[in-house]
Design a protein that fits this description.
Largest sheet: 4 strands, mixed
Helix content: 40-55%
Number of helices: 14
């Protein structure tokens, strides 16, 4: 980050590793941050004096600072323009992404009190995906669960062995098989109603979801979805609000996309007076049948999802604040 300040401030910030070099405001000798402190070792510029030309009442009055240069800073070859679609630059977008994850995780896992519960949620083959696991229900059918399990095996084999015990080798062998075989295996260890897994597999996955590395991998793998929500969904539908982003993210997770036909039909209904809320209500009608209730709840702020009433505006803070 850029740093301009008195000597003591520059020393402490640079020593802490928050800045590599600094611009020292050395002119003001009366600063308590300058008195008694040496020039920072990492100084790049030192503003040490100033000259005045003319009287301050004159229209041509000029005040010029004298700045020493250490030669340690060589400038920049290019300056990256601000990108409103980059959450690392746009704090409002980062907040919208965080809220979108909380809401979609609620829809996917129905966690009750703490989102940490969602990381351990595991379901059986009720939807033909074999096994679904974690914060957005990564699964075998969409081939999103295999990378998480394989990364855990690669980076934390001892943890996986401890969690899965004598079934660890079974898990590793199954992960080397085809998608269809994995789905069939998931079906074979699902409960009779397919809503969960039989013991001890249910307990294995629940314990895995509480592991900090597994949670980090799940978070990392959300990037595919939050980026898709931005481009193409938010860009295609010109969504600019937090509510719009939450809708885009949930579509990316649940349906991946609305499709060209839906896009064309929605665009044909947009006029100059159409608001973003109007567009969101239209989008809610064109997703999959299983996603309609949750998308309507996002568009309207309230609804019934998973047979439970939910108030996203009041209870989760969903809002229409622009993120760009």
């Amino acid at each position: 980050m850029g740093l301009y300040g008195p000597r003591n401030t520059c020393i402490q910030v640079c020593d802490a590793g928050y800045a590599l070099s600094c611009f020292v405001s050395d002119m003001s000798t009366g600063y308590s941050g300058n008195l008694g402190y040496p020039l920072p070792k990492s100084w790049a510029f030192d503003q040490y004096a100033g000259d005045e030309f003319g009287l301050k009442t004159d229209p041509d009055y000029t005040d010029i600072d004298k700045v020493a240069v250490s030669g340690s800073y060589h400038g920049e070859e290019e300056v990256k323009p601000y990108d409103p679609f980059d959450p690392y630059e746009n704090e409002k977008l980062a907040e919208a992404i965080k809220l979108a994850v909380y809401i979609t995780a609620k829809f996917e896992t129905n966690y009750q009190n703490d989102i940490k519960e969602a990381y351990s949620c595991v379901t059986g083959n009720f939807d033909g995906q074999g096994i679904s696991f974690g914060i957005i229900q990564y699964n075998f059918g969409q081939e999103t669960l295999q990378p998480i399990l394989n990364e855990m095996i690669e980076h934390a084999p001892e943890v996986m062995s401890q969690i899965f015990g004598t079934d660890y080798e079974t898990l590793k062998n199954k992960l080397s098989s085809s998608k269809s075989d994995l789905i069939a295996w998931g079906n074979s260890i699902s409960t009779s109603g397919k809503s969960s897994l039989i013991s001890p597999w249910k307990e294995y996955f629940e314990e895995l979801g509480q592991n900090s590395l597994c949670q980090s991998i799940q978070k990392k793998n959300l990037e595919t979805y939050w980026r898709r929500a931005i481009d193409p969904i938010c860009k295609n539908y010109n969504l600019k609000t937090c509510r719009g982003y939450v809708m885009a993210f949930d579509i990316a997770v649940k349906d991946w996309a609305l499709g060209d036909t839906a896009y064309n039909q929605i665009q044909s209904q947009i006029t100059e007076s159409t608001t973003e809320r109007d567009i969101l209500n239209l989008m809610a009608q064109y997703g999959s049948a299983s996603s309609r209730a949750r998308h309507e709840a996002i568009a309207r702020g309230t609804g019934t999802v998973n047979e439970e009433p939910i108030n996203l505006d009041a209870d989760y803070g969903l809002n229409d604040t622009p993120f760009r």
